[in-house]
Amino acid sequence: MTNLFNKNQLRSLHRQIDTPALIVHEGRLSENIRQMQSLADSNNAALRPHTKTHKSVYLAKLQLKAGAKGITVAKLSEAEIMFRSGVNDIFIANQITHPLKLKRLRELRRKAKVIIGLDDPLQIKLLEQAFKNEKTLLPVRIEINSGLNRCGVKVDQSLVELAKKVVKSPCLKLEGLFTHAGHVYAAKSDGEAAEIGRREGEIMEHARNLLKESGICVNTISVGSTPTVKYSVQNPQVTEIRPGNYVFYDAMQIKLGSATVDQCSLFVLSTVVSRPEPDRIVIDAGSKALNTDGANMTGAFGLPLNVSGKIVRLSEEHGILEAAGSCAAQIGDPVLIIPNHACVAANLFDYYYFVDENLKIRQITIDARGKSQ
Ligand SMILES: Cc1ncc(COP(=O)(O)O)c(C=O)c1O
User: Fold this and answer.
1) Does the C-beta of 243 come closer than 6 Å to ligand 1?
2) Given this structure, which CATH class describes domain 7-24+259-365?
């Protein structure tokens, strides 16, 4: 086990916290926040962390206090929760097209500083219909496809045409360009991740230059994923970074080489509920606590730290560990696990249990968990 909690400390925590539960190591969390802010500062870029990872107002405020310029969210409902709790500079890195959402976006925009994404002329039309009687322009960013092949336009004439439409719009203001190089999660090495990060920066630089040639200037060039950010931020054209996962890191980041075990700050604490065979340990954290995401990448369903075994299978309420017969874990013992994917683990719980250096425990609400609309 790493220098996390020693055996006695883990047992003490386990006596006080019912399982399965999400544990946050406050020291590591603060260090992760500090390091990413320092990366942004030293490259003259603003940090607008993606709060889809932690979904918590408390954590967003910690990031802002450390120097973040604003936050990013994936969903309008996340933006609403963050604004209601006092966070007021929010980029919704997503396209909004449903009529009920457009109405809610209009309401939110009347009170809050929000920016939203788009990548199609039809979205401009929908936004114009919803915002035609508003007194202020809605700031938007055009999404660029830097290789993920999810949303986003290619950097060619279609980008210029789209940008021209935004510039001409009586309701919208072109605030910037953004991209997310999420295809990095299929990279086989840190070298490959570095190359994807460099390309992410270059593609955005090219996009900015192409618009400039057509007389269109944008303020913000926004990039970011946790594995690519340290590479893409080095491009001087990049003005903003949006990593999310870095607050916690997880087993997928370890596998990619973009974090070490000792940097991970989020854990699922579970309990051994059965040991039906010497080589089979059953814990109370199944897919409702660990989720199945990332197993094809890491080859397991999370990384146990204090038990030498591999989580080979999950059902909803049970996690199955393959263990050596000599493994001493007994029924009732704690098992501390780095989840494969921290962002999805956070979506499964109501609270984090923050643990400080004196092992003091605080319950922190995961305010925006389950907010998918
Ligand atoms: C649009 C967008 N930006 C930024 C991020 C943050 O990426 P990561 O969690 O790798 O830091 C994500 C993550 O899904 C995203 O979808």
Assistant:
1) yes
2) mainly beta
Give the whole-angstrom CA distance, residue 76 versus residue 79. Answer: 5
The full set of domain ranges for the chain reads: 7-24+259-365, 27-247
β-pairing, 240-241 vs 46-47, is parallel
Contact 284, 318 (CB under 8 A): yes
Q: Rounded to whole angstroms, how far apart are CA atoms 231 and 344? A: 25
What pTM did the predictor assign?
A: 0.97
Q: What is the DSSP letter of 144?
A: B
* Among 366, 345, 359, 335, residue whose Cα is nearest residue 250: 345
178 Cα nearest atom in ligand 1: 1
From atom 8 of ligand 1, which residue's Cα is the shortest distance away?
A: 225
**pLDDT value of position 326:** 84
Mean pLDDT throughout 273-295?
Answer: 95
Q: Over the stretch 288-314, which tens digit does the pLDDT of each residue have?
A: 999 899 999 999 999 999 999 999 999
Q: Does domain 27-247 have CATH number 1.20.1740.10?
A: no
Ligand 1 within 6 A of 180 CB?
yes
With a cut of 70, say whether residue 2 has pLDDT above it: no
